[in-house]
Structure formats: structure tokens, C-alpha cells
């Protein structure tokens, strides 16, 4: 009964392994059935014994093939696991290298951005310092410049010039040391408006001076012409004589 059970279980195992990619058909040795000699008495015990030996040999062969196939499958499974682990380690290393490169790239970008911001801030500070210095010099020297220009003229000041002098003397200092960029822009705009007004007044004065010169020339020509006419026709004939 044990042999029949083992044979039935082993006969089903090749069918179950047929679906496996590593299954192979077991090689069972072909044994010739025992021949019954003619004219002799049949020994059923011997026939049964030989049949049992044949079945046992087939069973042993199937068991050996099964364990050999199982050993191969286990070795292939171990190799597959090793390849999977190796591939996983390679992917982890690649991801680590990519992450490190990305961190380095982001660090370089941040350093370059910070360097540009520092350079721009330094340049703005230098420009503001230059503007403050220029405006301070303009505020300190503009009044003296007007006074020197008036002294060089060496003539009597007009009402408009007196007004300009008074405004220059009364104008308070700029006080731009603590101003921000918006305050400096506003103060520069005020200075520009003031200079524009002065230039307009200068243009008006020059135009007025030109007109006055023209009127003086016209008057001089008229006087000269009148004097010439007077010299030619100034004497009249009185009592038969020219006087």
C-alpha cells in the first residue's frame, strides 16, 4: 500500500511541475517485463517481486529527479535573489549620486545668486554714496558760486538778482546724510527743478539783455542820423545870410 501511495503521489508531481519553467521530464529506465517460460510452472511470487523492484526503481528515479530539479530551482532562485539585491543596490547608489549632484548644483546656484545680490547691493551703496557726496557739494558750493559770479560782474544788482541772492542765502542745507533712495530721488528732483528755474531765469535775462542792446543800437543809430541831418540843415537864411 505504501508503494502504491508513493507511486500515485510521484505520478502527480510531474504534472504539477509541468507548469514550472524549470521542469524537465524525468528519465525513467525502461525495464522489460518478466518473461514466463513455456512449459514451466509460473512463479507468481517472483513476478510480484520483480514488479515491486521495477516500481521501486522507478520511484527512486522520480525521487532523485525531483530533488535534483528542486536543487536547481533553489540555486536559480538564490541567483535571482542575488541579482535583484545587486540591482537594488545599484539603483540606490545611482539615486545617491544623482541626489548628491543635485545638491551640489543647488548649492552652486544659491552661491551664485548670493554673490550677484552682494555685488548689486555693494554697487547700490556706492552709487548712493556718490549721489550724496555730489548733492552735498552742490548744496555747499552753490551759494558761494552765485556770490562769486555776482562779484565778478562788478555792477549793481537788479531786483531779480537780489531776489535770487536772498533765496540762495535763505536756502537751508540739504541734510541728505540719512536719506534713503526715495528721499534722495525726491531731493534730486527738487534740485533739478531749482536748477531748471534758474536756467529759465538766465535765459530770460539774456533775452532781455539782447533786446536792450538792440534798442540801444537802434537809438544810437537814430541819434546819429538826427545829428547828421541837423548838421546839414541846421543853418537857416535870415536877412539874406545863412546863420
TrEMBL record:
Spans annotated as Disordered: 12-40, 88-132
Protein's UniProt keywords contain Phosphoprotein: yes
Name under which the protein is recorded: Troponin T, slow skeletal muscle
Gene Ontology terms describing biological process: regulation of muscle contraction; sarcomere organization; slow-twitch skeletal muscle fiber contraction
Natural source organism: Sinocyclocheilus anshuiensis
One Pfam family linked to the record: Troponin
Record's keyword terms, sorted: Muscle protein, Phosphoprotein
Entry GO MF terms: tropomyosin binding; troponin T binding
Function of the molecule: Troponin T is the tropomyosin-binding subunit of troponin, the thin filament regulatory complex which confers calcium-sensitivity to striated muscle actomyosin ATPase activity.
Basic and acidic residues bias (residue ranges): 88-130
Subunit structure: Interacts with TPM3.
Record-level GO cellular component terms: troponin complex
Membership in a protein family: Belongs to the troponin T family.
UniProt xrefs under InterPro entries: TNNT, Troponin, Troponin_sf
Annotated Polar residues bias: 12-22
Phosphoprotein in keyword set: yes
Amino acid at each position: 500500500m505504501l508503494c502504491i501511495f508513493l507511486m500515485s503521489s510521484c505520478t502527480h508531481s510531474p504534472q504539477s511541475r509541468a507548469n514550472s519553467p524549470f521542469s524537465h521530464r524525468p528519465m525513467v529506465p525502461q525495464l522489460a517485463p518478466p518473461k514466463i517460460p513455456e512449459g514451466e510452472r509460473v512463479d507468481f511470487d517472483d513476478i510480484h517481486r520483480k514488479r515491486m523492484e521495477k516500481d521501486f526503481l522507478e520511484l527512486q528515479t522520480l525521487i532523485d529527479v525531483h530533488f535534483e530539479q528542486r536543487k536547481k530551482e533553489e540555486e536559480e532562485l538564490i541567483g535571482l535573489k542575488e541579482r535583484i539585491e545587486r540591482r537594488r543596490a545599484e539603483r540606490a547608489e545611482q539615486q545617491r549620486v544623482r541626489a548628491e549632484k543635485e545638491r551640489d548644483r543647488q548649492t552652486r546656484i544659491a552661491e551664485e545668486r548670493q554673490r550677484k545680490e552682494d555685488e548689486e547691493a555693494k554697487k547700490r551703496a556706492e552709487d548712493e554714496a556718490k549721489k550724496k557726496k555730489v548733492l552735498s557739494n552742490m548744496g555747499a558750493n552753490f551759494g558761494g558760486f552765485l556770490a562769486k559770479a555776482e562779484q565778478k560782474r562788478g555792477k549793481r544788482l537788479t531786483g531779480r538778482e537780489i531776489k535770487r541772492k536772498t533765496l540762495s542765502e535763505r536756502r537751508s542745507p540739504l541734510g541728505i546724510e540719512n536719506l534713503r533712495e526715495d528721499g534722495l530721488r525726491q531731493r534730486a528732483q527738487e534740485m533739478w527743478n531749482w536748477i531748471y528755474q534758474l536756467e529759465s531765469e538766465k535765459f530770460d535775462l539774456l533775452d532781455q539783455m539782447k533786446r536792450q542792446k538792440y534798442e540801444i543800437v537802434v537809438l544810437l543809430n537814430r541819434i546819429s542820423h538826427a545829428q547828421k541831418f541837423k548838421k546839414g540843415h541846421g543853418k537857416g537864411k535870415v536877412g539874406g545870410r545863412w546863420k
